[in-house]
Amino acid sequence: MEGGARPSTILVTNHIDDIHKSNENLEHMEILEGDVDASISNRVRHKFDRNIIPWLWGLWMFSFLDRSNIGNANIAGLSDDLNLHSTQYNMALMLFFIPYILVDLPSNWILKYFQAGWYLAGLVTCWGIIMVMAARRELKLTNYK
């Protein structure tokens, strides 16, 4: 390279500039934190506790129930009702969780592009339409037998 800086020198210089900018931003944030009134901070924390924590607890409880229901269903006779023998129940359980795991990450990526309220409402609506169509199909099959 004639007359110019080496690429590694440019990268190091850019990195050092980024560090200096980050330090300036941190100092600015510290100044802002000192200006926050303790009573406002407490009010915001208590409002968060009152409005968000109950919803998070509810979601955690539904998640727990969802995970434990499949085991309870097996104890209640699911394997007998479906004529599942030996490891068939475990295979069905594994096949249930594979799509759950595979869809989880792309679903979180989609949330970067759409608001959560619209995205979740869309998922619930689509699932409702699928269930209505499945019920209609089942009704048609049972009416013609």
Question: Helix and strand layout, with pairings?
Answer:
Blueprint: H1 7-35, H2 38-51, H3 53-75, H4 78-81, H5 88-110, H6 116-143
Subcellular location: Membrane
Keywords: Membrane, Transmembrane, Transmembrane helix, Transport
Transmembrane segments: 92-111, 117-135
Protein model, in words:
- This protein has 145 residues and is an all-alpha fold.
- Helix content is 83%, strand content 0%.
- The chain is built from six helices and no strands.
- It has helices at residues 7-35, 38-51, 53-75, 78-81, 88-110, 116-143.
- The mean pLDDT is 77.
- Its main location: membrane.
- It is found in: Membrane.
- It is a multi-pass membrane protein.
Radius of gyration from the alpha-carbon trace, in angstroms: 27 Å
Give the mean pLDDT.
77
Strand percentage: under 5%
Estimate the helix proportion, in percent. over 70%
What distance lies between the first and last C-alpha atoms, to the nearest angstrom? 83 Å
Order of helices and strands: HHHHHH
- Low-pLDDT stretches are none
DSSP helical segment count: 6
| Main sheet summary | none
Q: Which shape, going by the Cα principal axes?
A: elongated
Structural class: mainly alpha
User: Could you tell me the number of beta strands?
Assistant: 0
Subcellular location: Membrane
InterPro entries: MFS_trans_sf (IPR036259)
GO cellular component, one term: membrane
Keywords: Membrane, Transmembrane, Transmembrane helix, Transport
